[in-house]
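User: I'm writing a tutorial on reading structure tokens. Could you give me a worked example: one chain, its sequence, then its tokens, then a sentence or two explaining what the tokens reveal?
Assistant: Sure. Here is the example chain.
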Amino acid sequence: MPPQTPHWPGWPSPTPPPRESRGVAFFVAIFLGLLLVASGGLNVLLLLVSVGSLSGGLGADSDGVEYDEVFIAGERGGKDKVLQIAIRGAIAEVQTALLGASGGTVSQVKRALRQAAADDIQGVLLYIDSPGGGVTDSDVIYQMVQAFRREHPKKVVMALFGDIAASGGYYIAVAAEHITSRRTTITGSIGVIMSAWNFAEAAKKLGVDQVAIKSERTPWKDMLSPTRAMQPEERAMLTAIVDELYDQFVSVVDEGRDNLDRAQVVAAANGAVYTAKQALALGLVDDIGDYDTALAWFRQKLGKDVTIIEARRRAGLGDLLFGAFAAPKGADAAIANLLTTSTGPRFLYYWEGGR
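And here are its predicted structure tokens:
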């Protein structure tokens, strides 16, 4: 018989050493590391802000917001300056979505006119590229420009058109002493509009009925309801308002254009849009040109060469951290606010074809 292998009693398998638990010190180290990274990022942002503050600027406005001086045209670095105030897109006073910063057209022009009161600013160039906007917003800006001219009679004001200067855009322009249109500009659209949707027939087919509780003493309280037909009396009321606002538009143009009498203004104020050549023939603009034309006009009015600059808001730390200084999304946001976010249909100095 082969020898048997002796059977040894099994020994217990060795147990692994207990894992050391991560103490508080480990997590404190992680936290300090993250804090160090965040601190480094903040230092970089602060450095960017500091570098920006070293560039040429127009200082801070009454709200503490700082602006940089950006060269537009003329002799770079010239001491005699004209401040360009750009009115682009739909004319509407809105609030930006982030931090509640006021970004509407009225607020922007108001701030810029305060800057234009500085001693080294010789005049203002209204650069208008807009299809118009709200009746009140357009009129407020028009009155602000007129007030600026009265308070600063030695400073001259000119308007230069971009692609479009229609309706409310043209309304603002007539507050200037001189209007220059680019040869590709579309302008005019002198008139008032109020648009509203009506789904009365569709609602009837779908069995939808809007319940409006109103007093017998206020029968017109639900005027322009989208779910019922407009009454002839309601249409007459709204048309009377439109006519009154139209007459105001005509009066503004008549007052601002010394070369036209009221009959000539009325003839042009039929809601139509015009090319630059047509507008010049109608007397709605003074000449056709560009920045060189504007510089020549300022030189003739002031007796010296000028530099056209624009004040652009300087990014602050909050802007860099939270994106509040993000570039505007063009006219779409302002138009959407103008046409959809009000409590109802609005009276507009606005060319709908300029969306």
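What the tokens reveal: The chain has one domain: 57-194+230-354. The CA atoms of residues 56 and 314 lie 11 Å apart.
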